[in-house]
Amino acid sequence: MRVIKEASVGLYKVTIYHWNNKYLLKFEDGLNELTYKISQLDITSEADVEVFLTDPEVLSKVDETFGKMNQTLDAYFSKI
């Protein structure tokens, strides 16, 4: 697995990897991680991965997903 780039995007640390003909985009917010796998065949170059990190619609969905993940953790911890 090769690290292509590490960056801060909004509140998240993002690491981009290349592995097994896929790009892995790992978002971290401290407690949670969210990874998207993008086939190398679905994009034309590594630069296309950068577009994924700057698209407001994608970042909005990432925010929503992390929100749901935190709600799930809160629900779990409220029971113990």
Question: What descriptors fit this protein?
Answer:
80 residues; alpha+beta; four-stranded antiparallel β-sheet; 2 helices; 4 strands; 38% strand; elongated
Structural notes for this entry:
- This protein is α+β, with helices and mostly antiparallel strands.
- The chain has one domain.
- Helices cover 39% and strands 38% of the residues.
- The chain is built from two helices and four strands.
- It has helices spanning 47-54, 56-78; strands at residues 2-9, 12-19, 22-28, 33-39.
- Strands 1-2-3-4 form a four-stranded antiparallel β-sheet, covered by helices on one side.
- The radius of gyration is 14 Å and the shape is elongated.
- The N and C termini lie far apart (38 Å).
- The mean pLDDT is 93.
Along the chain, the helix and strand elements come as: EEEEHH
Rounded to the nearest angstrom, the distance between the terminal CA atoms is 38 Å
Domain tally: 1
In round numbers, the mean pLDDT is: 93
Structural class: alpha+beta
Strand order of the largest sheet: 1-2-3-4
Tertiary shape: elongated
**Helical content (DSSP H or I, runs of 4+):** 25-40%
Number of strands: 4
**Model regions low in confidence, pLDDT < 50 over at least 5 residues:** none
Rg over CA atoms, rounded to whole Å, is 14 Å
Percent in strands: 35-45%
